[in-house]
Amino acid sequence: MWELHDDRWTHSRLVCAAGLRALAASALAASAPGADSGRAARWEALADRIVADTAADSLHPTGRWQRTPTDRAVDAALLLPAVRGALPADDPRTTATLRAVRTDLVQDHYVYRFRHDRRPLEDAEGAFLLCGFVMALAEHQRGKLVEAVRWYERNRAACGPAGLDAEEFDVAQRQLRGNLPQAFVHALLLEAAVRLAEPS
Fold first, then answer.
1. What is the distance, to the nearest Å, from the Cα of residue 193 to the centroid of all Cα atoms in its chain?
2. Which is higher by pLDDT, 92 or 198?
């Protein structure tokens, strides 16, 4: 989602595992009964290896994912791999990461990407609306529909008069910040709207 410098970013590695799992599921669904499922099994095995390798160098001592092998900070991008299927919603690493994001990066039901430095979150940048919709998807995945809708509605309401979302929302001043309109925010808004309408 954002790679600020050259490193082995945890969220990117885990999203690759999610992609491999999606390919494997698609291959199995498309195969005729009795067809060779070897390719799907190889993709699943590779996904397992990526998750294991990532856990070996990017698991924080508290049990949550950290940004990179050398950066122990929490990052809202770390919510996305589980939403995309890299890990189950009830995996202890997933739940620990969700808890850490809620504790460290949330203000008034808006989510910041990460902590830039020791300043208050809102002094560095606005809350990222994309992250609020990812949080809604994460809560929905856990079966917490009321909480998912709360996240969705809070972040959906942060749009401008034309109903368009910016990249960021200034929580203190209640105004849009950053690029407007921002396509990836609208994509996650629409995805969250569809998923939240489905049973969890």
1. 16
2. 92
